[in-house]
Amino acid sequence: MTDPSYTDLRRYNQTIAALHADPDVTGDLLLVGMWLARATILRDPPEGENGWSVEAAARDLYPVATRPAMNSFGQWTAQETRPDVWRVHDVLTKDIRRYDLWADQPGGKRGHTVCGAKTPRKPRCGKTVTVATTLTDPATGRRRMVGACRRHTDWWQEQTRANREACASVEIPRPPANAGGALARHISLDWPALWQGLDPKWVPPPEVDGWERPALRLVVSSASPSQPMVAGGPPRPRFALIDGALS
Ligand SMILES: [Zn+2]
């Protein structure tokens, strides 16, 4: 490894600071982000033939596996001598850029849905729900949880029926992404290729504010860590990191 230039060191420092300042980047995600910053900016470790590997990150970050794994005899073992590749896998998978139903709900997570029926006194009943489902906005594809308490199931069934009808005759667009992609805000990497490697069914979700970041490559070795898998998709430049690109 050659000594990094002053520009690279400065960019590395700025990236690490930005990762720390980002409220969406915490815990293991922050750790993996710091590893990626060092790899992609300072070239430490240097890039392999197909890019960096998830396994290399796991070797540095989690050299001793913490989760049991199935051995070839079908028994669960502690796998103490191998790096925790799946941990890096999980961190990156949770950060895949996507539309997330729960991120689109007012409470931001499960368990926040209350009865939405209008009552004579209140715009919303607010009682604990006994039934719940998602209604799709036919214009945007965004989904909203709608539930009802025991008293308002008729209202809820009518909402559900009306929504089904409204969606039946139109082509529902894919909703814009609203979750994941936190590391991609800071690290220049061929993220679409990585996300396809982590989830072969992944296709780029629509973005409301044109979100694009090409470049360096981290490869996923899925079933067998010894067999690196290069994600499919259109070829992308592997060295698109240009001085000043991340000002
Ligand atoms: Zn109610």
Q: Count helical runs.
A: 6
Q: How do the strands of the widest beta sheet line up side by side?
A: 1-6
Taken in chain order, the helices and strands follow as HHEHEEHEEHHE
Please tally the β strands and state the result.
Answer: 6
Bound molecules: zinc ion
Using only C-alpha atoms, the radius of gyration works out to 23 Å
Choose one word for the global shape. elongated
Query: How would you classify the helix and strand content by structural class?
Result: alpha+beta
Helix proportion: 25-40%
Q: Summarize the biggest pleated sheet.
A: 2 strands, parallel
What is the total domain count? 2
Provide the low-confidence segments as ranges.
222-247
Mean pLDDT: 83
| Proportion of strand residues | 5-15%
End-to-end separation: 24 Å
Descriptive overview:
This protein has 247 residues and is an alpha+beta fold. The protein has two domains: 6-98 and 178-219, no CATH class; 102-168, no CATH class. It is built from six helices and six strands; from the N terminus they run ααβαββαββααβ. It has helices spanning 6-21, 27-42, 54-61, 85-94, 153-168, 191-198, and strands spanning 52-53, 69-70, 76-77, 131-136, 143-148, 218-219. The strands form three sheets. The chain has a two-stranded parallel ribbon with strand order 1-6. Helix 1 runs antiparallel to helix 2 and helix 3 (54-61) packs across helix 4. The protein is elongated, with a radius of gyration of 23 Å. The two termini are 24 Å apart. The model is unreliable at 222-247 (pLDDT under 50). Zinc ion (ZN) binds at residues 115, 117, 125, 127, 148-149, 151-152. Zinc ion binds at residues 115, 117, 125, 127, 148-149, 151-152.
